[in-house]
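Quick one, probably user error.
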């Protein structure tokens, strides 16, 4: 059982067990985090990386110095949310080399 911390009017700290109703709500929130919260956090990380890569190469588009390979790469970056839709895919996209800490998935490598 999970405890809650209550501070009474005298400033005394009390650790009390959750009621059955509170425990059920706590468990439901934990389950929700484990099933969707973690996935959403990973998706947000992927989106931040993707947006950064796109912003870093926006100048290529405006300068008209972009190659066909770079156009395809940018298109693939924009399609990440529709092409990679589950937590396992996000794990692959967020994988890093243990030594260099660089992202290892090929989609992040600019041609």
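Nope, works fine. Designed sequence:
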């Amino acid at each position: 059982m999970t405890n809650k911390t209550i501070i009474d009017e005298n400033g005394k700290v009390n650790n009390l067990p959750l009621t059955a109703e509170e425990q059920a709500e706590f468990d439901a929130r934990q389950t929700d985090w484990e099933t969707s919260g973690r996935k959403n956090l990973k998706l947000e990380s992927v989106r931040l990386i993707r947006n950064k890569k796109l912003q870093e190469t926006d100048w290529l588009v405006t300068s008209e110095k972009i190659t066909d390979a770079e156009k395809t790469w940018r298109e693939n970056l924009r399609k990440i949310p529709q092409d990679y839709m589950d937590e396992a895919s996000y794990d692959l996209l967020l994988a890093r080399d243990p030594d260099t800490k660089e992202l290892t998935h090929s989609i992040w490598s600019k041609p």
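The CA atoms of residues 73 and 111 lie 7 Å apart.
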